[in-house]
Design brief:
With 211 residues, this protein is an alpha/beta fold. It is built from five helices and eight strands; from the N terminus they run βββαβαβαββαβα. It is globular, with a radius of gyration of 16 Å.
Length: 211
């Protein structure tokens, strides 16, 4: 069972508010935690975001990450310019806290949340450590040009019910043709929502936080 998440209503720099589930690192950690914005799948509503914070956010928190799982303000995940900007403003607000480290943020997302994370990274890749897209899809090398040299961890289930496994090669090509630093794999027999392979993800996290 994952660690319980606390829900907060956070005021952003534009005067709007965003509901966010927060999972803090272990209390034995004295240093500020590196910030991870983790976006759930589907519409990114309250129930999905809460579940994501517990089953996946808590795993990241156990590894020392300060995890924020935002709730979409309009049931459109965090896709589109206005929703992308909400995440940038959320990061600004959270990094004013004493227990949150300044500097680059890690983005992660599941399904629509993974696609949202990629959209956000494309706008200002220099602000982010990388994207863990578990899963996501993409089709345009041109759209991904801003991510040249940018670290992306991509996993798609081999038995994805939405047919995303059939788009794995297309997605990999869209990233590699754009020069992305890509770590991608199909997970044999896994569905659309799958358990993380922490051995490979931990290795990737180590890489992006030390380079």
């Amino acid at each position: 069972m994952g660690q319980a998440a606390a829900q907060e209503r956070i005021e952003l720099g534009d005067g709007s508010h965003l509901n966010v589930f927060i999972v803090k690192p272990s209390e034995t950690t004295t240093e500020p935690g590196q910030l991870l914005i983790l976006m759930g799948g589907g519409p990114g509503n309250v129930s999905i975001s809460r579940d994501t914070s517990v089953w996946l956010g808590s795993e990241f928190a156990q590894r020392g990450w300060w995890v924020a799982v935002p709730v979409s303000p309009n049931n459109r995940a965090f896709r589109g310019f206005e929703n992308n900007q909400k995440i940038a403003l959320l990061i600004e607000a959270l990094q004013q806290r004493a227990d949150v480290a300044a500097g680059k943020t890690l983005l992660a997302g599941i399904s629509n949340g993974g696609i949202s994370a990629l959209e956000i990274a494309r706008r200002n890749p220099e602000n982010y450590l990388g994207v863990a897209a578990v899963p996501a899809i993409s089709s345009s090398a041109f759209d991904n040009k801003p991510l040249a040299g940018f670290p992306i961890y991509l996993r798609i289930g081999g038995e994805d019910q939405l047919g995303w496994a059939d788009r794995f090669d297309e997605t990999v090509a869209a990233f590699t043709d754009a020069g992305v630093d890509l770590d991608a794999a199909i997970l044999d027999s896994a569905p659309h929502m799958f358990r993380m392979n922490w051995e490979s993800l931990d290795a990737w996290l180590q890489k992006v936080t030390t380079q």
